[in-house]
Amino acid sequence: xxxxxxxxxxxxxFTSGLATAHEFESGELHIDHPWSKEVPPMxxxxxxxxxxxxxxxxxxxxxxxxxPIAEKVELHEHAHENGMMKMRKVDDIQIPAHDTQLLQPxxxxxxxxxxxxxxxxxxxxxxxxxxxxxxxxxxxxxxxxADYMMNTGQNMDHSQMDHQxxxxxxxxxxxxxxxxxH
Length: 182
Prior knowledge:
The protein is built from one helix and eleven strands, in the order αβββββββββββ. It is mainly beta. A hairpin with a 2-residue loop joins strand 5 and strand 6. The protein is globular.
């Protein structure tokens, strides 16, 4: 009886981790933790972020996305142009073979316009991604606090980087360790 109880406890712990896991697979693509920043209740826009790991030998391309919570969904990027950060629509997002493409604040992301419903903190909403090779992938986007940052390696060690000649204007250096930078 004790071993059955232990087995059931272990199974519940294991499956509870699966229930909270926020990952999606399609072919060689692994999509990790789709999320959106909490927006005000009257907002007409929202954005979605996630990482895509391509474990295959062939590159893939994110072609478009759609969601029932928005009238229009576009692929976007933030780009540095003429000393200014600008957000602009892109036709697609490349997912290189054996690499990871991050969709994150300040980079590529999914932009949703004319929201038909505004999800609240802790809610999830559906997002359908269309890839050139992997095809249609349905994911759930979890709404996180506005200051949430996905684990993207942002706390990386910069001590061996050669920073000479880099344009640092407009870069956010808060929290970066600049000791031993060249």
